[in-house]
Amino acid sequence: MITPTTILLSVLPVYALIIGGAVLRKVGILKPSYDSWILRIIFWVMAPCFILDRMLGAEILRNYYTLGIGIGLGFALIIAGILVGYLVGKAIGLEHGNGMRTFALAAGCQNYGYTAVPVVQILWSGSALAVLFVHNIGVEIAIWSFGVMLLSGDRMIKWKRMINGPIIAVIIGLILVMLRVDDQVTGSFRSVISIIGIGAFPIALVMTGAAMMDLVGTEKPSWKIILGSILVRMLLVPIIIIASAKFIPMPVELKQVLVVQAAMPAAMVPILLAKIYGGRPAVAVQIVIATTAVSIFSLPFIITYGMRFLNLTPITP
Question: What is the domain-level CATH number for residue 240?
Fold first, then answer.
């Protein structure tokens, strides 16, 4: 029987890489001046190659219902998470102007990229990874539309902000798969894509750890923000996500994606959005650090009992 300990041992390399990045930053080996170029290479070259390599040949992506429900739930569950965050933020005494909107966005948005991808890859198959990338289109739409409007008060959606390396790779991958020409991407070119992409997410996790080390101690912690975000991210939203996976008809690969999404800590994107759109970056920073630290202990339990509830079995024993 799969236990929380089994899951923890399976995903421990993910946290080891994050901690390793924090250590490298602390001792001065991974300097902040390196970040910009490393992240550009990951974001515009390595991650798109990894995504394209995993999407090509994924038969599950030829099903229109899978694409629709994947993108739709990616969008809807982020909106639900933000709304739960808003209600909890209001309940703990936050108000407009002192971080309530930033709290709602940061607590409501789970990590759907650099931390989620390796966990899905470890626990499930390549098909689940392909579905995760499609699911993330809906997540991106929700964050850059509803999320930005929540923070800024602007009713205009700046769609061009969604254009990035991973999204371009997903679109190209979907086109090739739907046209059934993805099997033509072979030989040396396919090998190059695979080799370039294989290190994308391990390096991204190291950079995540380094970035979190930069954030530690930058703001005085607020216990109501920390505890409120843990309530949203580690209890209320996981219940919504796993219940959706249970009662909404969907392929098993999307269920696999959602049980991992339910266990994820807060995403780092809201920190950037808070800086750009006049939110409270300090609130988002506390939420990211707190939920990431707690997820080391909560993730194994959420995934274990989520799998049992959904009758799923990981490929990792």
Answer: 1.20.1530
